[in-house]
From TrEMBL, chains A, B:
MF terms (GO), sorted A to Z: DNA binding
Pfam families tied to this protein: LacI, Peripla_BP_3
Naturally occurring in which organism (per UniProt): Pedobacter lithocola
Alphabetical keyword list: DNA-binding, Transcription, Transcription regulation
Name of the protein described by the UniProt record: LacI family DNA-binding transcriptional regulator
Positions of the HTH lacI-type domain: 5-59
Length: 335, 335
DNA sequence: CTGTTAGCGCCTTCAA
DNA sequence: TTGAAGGCGCTAACAG
């Protein structure tokens, strides 16, 4: 369509062979400086760019990586993608993005469509609705792949994650230090290690401080915002927790709405803390303490890891990289 | 790496020719049903998938489109991408995503890297920092391209936009109806039609209601959040506006912070209205009236438009599609 | 230093 | 109904 200009054409115009042109373009040591310059300047003049399909076919490299995420309309993932892109660009690679919408079937179908050499490698954050461990066990043998954030822990594969357990423990302790006695836990991603680690951190912190863990203070996430809203109201009415620890961002809004409806002031009547990368919400709500994951850095590390694999360097490194999340306490509330 | 299984292999195993296999796979009428079935079942058994690089090279089609946006970590664009992906998947296409970070040079460099047939078409939302009209005038001749949201109006090209002028007019009227006399305008995207249309809508609404337009009530956006914060405080102190109309989401936070610092209550002391696709912020802040653009639909329409072009259908349709934004008034404030 | 040649995997004439 | 052959644009042996 656009191009029309290929190495054959360059070769003809310069009266040299196709191979010479190719080598000149690839800066081969076999070619004289003079020829290189002639080729390069004509290439520039004619606006030559190599046909990627042809190079791909020949070299079995696509200069393309794929990113598979549940969703891009999400603060965490969009930042992670930014981190990935930065590295990809540095390596001159293109980035294909696929959204699974938490659908494990779609996840598999996207992934399978990438196994025929469309990409050099894959970065993936698995969907939360089904445990697909067997599938990925086979997959990692077929294609360079790095998991980030949402991983299958039992898998022998490259994984970039955060310290979900540790930061949850710390956050729960923070509440306890503030004098909270009855801390409810809003539970999400229960099928994934990340979600379960957050729960464990909470449980263990309670235990460490001699506070009894009560099952009825744990609320499971529902896809339906209305249900979450009503469940939180019920939770407030029946068990009167003095704090809410939300393990996923999606609980923040129903929690706030429930407080508003019940005329609870935050943080005077009830404290709220959430995992969240919603930067603006933090600023808008000085009463909300948040755990922020280093989303950008996770993307960055994951991509770096993938390129290490692709370049066959340092693959003997530790396969598990764990980054630190940050607990941001709201100064204005003193807690 | 993964594949190894190609039509040659299929042909050998079945003792037929490569050409026959190829035709069978493409469901050619020349091939007997029996042969087709043999080929297809073996293909399935061996998990055959065609090598994309080879098909691309042969057919000059990549089954890939590119999306170029300023940023994905943004409510509007991430939703738009979702809309684009939905359509792309329907057409069996893959989606490359590039972020310009509002850098016109990067925008050009990405775009240029796509002109050699790496993609079948491009969807783009231009960056705001430089007016690149000449560049795009040439570009649209070289590659199927659809602009969405951020466009160059003077260009004869496919464009999917929203009713920025109209909705700004309506929103300003809404303020006037609420009794506001001194409405400040927080101005962004001034180099782009969308931004200027928002300003015009505001100006014309004032005029239509006999309110004088005052230049000092218009505040330009700065990249520096702190500067915006301080400018808004100054604006409040010097001109005491009773309403703020923010033409971009990025002003919301400094505006809120300024109000907090000056102990202004929203909406009693000052009303705030903003263009925003920050769904959570709306719910968290019942006092904020918002203009929400149909981001998902814009992506959807843009992608549909591109595939129409690629399939050479309906190209004579109107090149300009304008979708409607929605003004969401906060019931709780009565304004 | 430069050129010739043989494919990468697929599709498409054209011939059988 | 099937097969043989050529070529998409590029690269990598191998010769000269």
């Amino acid at each position: 369509m656009a191009g029309e200009v290929n190495i054959k054409r360059l070769a003809q115009e310069l009266n040299i062979s196709i191979a010479t042109v190719s080598k000149a373009l690839n800066d081969s040591y076999e070619i004289s400086l003079k020829t290189k310059n002639r080729v390069l300047s004509l290439a520039k003049e004619l606006n030559y760019t190599p046909n990627p399909a042809a190079s791909n076919l020949r070299s079995n490299k696509t200069k393309t990586i794929a990113v598979i995420v549940p969703n891009v309309a999400n603060n965490f993932f969009s930042l992670a993608i930014k981190g990935i892109e930065e590295i990809a660009r540095k390596y001159g690679h293109h980035v294909l993005i696929y959204q699974t919408h938490e659908d494990a079937e779609m996840e598999k179908s996207f992934t399978n469509s990438l196994l025929n050499g469309r990409v050099d490698g894959i970065l993936t954050s698995v969907s939360s609705n089904e445990y697909n461990s067997d599938y990925y066990r086979d997959l990692v043998k077929k294609v360079p792949l790095v998991f980030f954030d949402r991983v299958y822990e039992s898998l022998d594969a490259f994984k970039i994650t955060t310290d979900d357990y540790q930061i949850s423990f710390t956050a729960t302790e923070h509440f306890i230090d503030c004098g909270c006695k009855s801390i409810a836990f809003l539970y999400g991603l229960g099928k994934l290690p990340a979600g379960r680690a957050r729960l464990s951190g909470y449980q263990d912190a309670l235990e460490a401080h001699g506070i009894e863990f009560r099952d009825e203070l744990v609320l499971d996430y529902s896809e339906d915002e209305e249900v979450n809203f009503s469940n939180i109201k019920t939770l407030f009415k029946e068990y009167k927790p003095d704090a809410l620890f939300s393990s996923i961002e999606e609980f923040i809004i129903p929690a706030y709405m429930a407080c508003a409806e019940l005329k609870f002031r935050i943080p005077e009547d009830v404290k709220i803390l959430s995992f969240s990368n919603m930067s603006s919400a933090k600023l808008l709500n000085p009463s909300l303490t948040t755990i922020t994951q280093p989303a950008f850095e996770i993307g960055n590390e994951a991509a770096k890891c993938l390129f290490k694999i692709l370049n066959k360097r340092g693959v003997d490194d530790d396969k598990d990289i764990v980054l630190k999340s940050v607990l941001i306490k709201r100064a204005s509330t003193g807690c």
